[in-house]
Design goal:
By secondary structure, this protein is an alpha/beta fold. The chain contains 14 helices and 14 strands. One of its GO terms (cellular component) is cytoplasm.
Amino acid sequence: MTDVTDGVLHTLFHSEQGGHEQVVLCQDRASGLKAVIAIHNTALGPALGGTRFYPYATEEEAVADALNLARGMSYKNAMAGLDHGGGKAVIIGDPETIKSEELLLAYGRFVASLGGRYVTACDVGTYVADMDVVARECRWTTGRSPENGGAGDSSVLTAFGVYQGMRASAQYVWGDPSLRGRRVGIAGVGKVGHHLVEHLVSEGAEVFVTDVREDAVRRITERHAGVTAVADTEALIRIENLDIYAPCALGGALNDDSVPVLTAKVVCGAANNQLAHPGVEKDLADRGILYAPDYVVNAGGVIQVADELHGFDFERCKAKAAKIYDTTLAIFARAKADGIPPAAAADRIAEQRMAEARRAR
């Protein structure tokens, strides 16, 4: 146990945590902060990944989510061609009720105590303004506002990357990258989902949306008269002749209940960890549903925050995010050549890059 300012920090090592290099449990009683920082792999460079602020039911659930998300970031950063490993942090609690400047500053001190092994950014429940506060205590913070030397909202390029992944999927399945006339269902129209709607509407896709927040759906349908609101995800995935399903909320959307009834021919969305458990990727393949690996197509945001560390240039980042189209097609080709699902093909490519970096070091 190591004291960090007025907080408490406890580190668990990979021998206890299934291959992760470091897992940090953080507590600051004065502010009410309870957080987990997970560092999965630093072979390619310092771990990079966002901070999720969420009301987990238990601390065990929070740790499990941090571990899964950190591992996903290792693969995402490797496939995006970044010189960063994978890490993730979760803050336990409802951000609507417990988030405060004091809490965010305490969290920043914990991140700073790692000395640059972990670089943080925004995620579910955290925003640019929050990163500005964290950065007051920690220089290893990205996703800040332009006024504070940052790049601003990373959801813009995240959505752009998912859009490129959809175009690549359409090219592979239908022989044409155009999404005009395609029926696309989006589950979750928050920070990323609403930008994705803009791309699809602009191209002439037929868009269906759902979200647990009625106000989020209302904003979309009021802005775009042609977008159709659907009651819930259960109804969305059963829409007749749906072409593409885009999970853009929390993980686990593809599971033993949803896959058998899914009508879409393609799954391509922004949510992390969409596969509820190992084997779901094979279930999708057996049903003839093409899965664009989530950590590949949603990498636009991490491309942006990584660029911020070196002096942000939006057009340079957008050009890098546009390459998600080529990367996605390469994964589909590798999957076909090896006779494996795309998720397994993406893992193989990412693991190869990490292993080569580890050998080089």
